[in-house]
Known about the structure:
By secondary structure, the protein is mainly α. Helices cover about 60% and strands about 10% of the residues. The strands form four sheets. The chain has a two-stranded antiparallel ribbon with strand order 1-8. Strands 2-7 form a two-stranded antiparallel sheet.
Amino acid sequence: MFHKSKRKTPPTQAELRQRVRRRMTLRGVLAFFVVLTMIRAAFMHRFENIFVCVLALILLALPSIIEKQLAIDIPPLMEGIIYCFIYAAEILGEINSFYTIIPGWDTMLHTLNGFLAAAVGLSMVILLNDNEKVVFDLSPFFLALLAFCFSMTIGVLWEFFEFFMDSFFGMDMQKDTVVHAIHSVTLDPTRTNQVVTISGITDTAVNGESLGLGGYLDIGIIDTMKDLFVNFLGALVFSVSGYFYARSRGKKKSPALNFVPTRKTPEQDYLQQAQEEEQP
């Protein structure tokens, strides 16, 4: 069974100062570029991009707010990846069109999202387990399974959101894919549920006008399944690591060690102490 692990040794003041500087520098640099992007969007009258920039600034501030409100310590590596993920998804992906310019950008982010969501799922149970009022006495396998299921649930809910936005607001969050063959029972003239295959498709015409795609346009389903599959891979990788983390009760080195927050008391809020010392 997984029980509470021993609290980590407090870092030295020099380590704390260095950690605070790194955190503030990374978040500050990314926030600076977000503000520049927002100013450019204002000059171009791209108000939807201004909204995305405001959302990105709010998301960049969330880790510190969550740390303070929940009295937890987010590992530096996890926090840095979260900052970079927000910038890559909102600013580079949405505003700078990396989703369409760079092949695999969306796939990379969905894989990382699956990994991070599994880390959040595992962390939630472990942090609850640190609460004297709520104790989860789960085996390492079920902890890993819970983290995996939590990540997949987040992935599915996100695809629901994309479908909703595409259907009701005319967006294209579920990106289309050009294919050269289709298989459908809808094309069966006998209506006997026989699959009809059309292969070697080189063009698609709508209302007599060629779209010039070089094939048939699949509307979102391939993109959705690909996103769920890479989310599955990211969740699986972390869940395996989380299993070994839970089995050793956090004592042995594991990649999951860098992605599981720890609870702290005000006396153990070392980062807050270092930040106060940094102030004149």
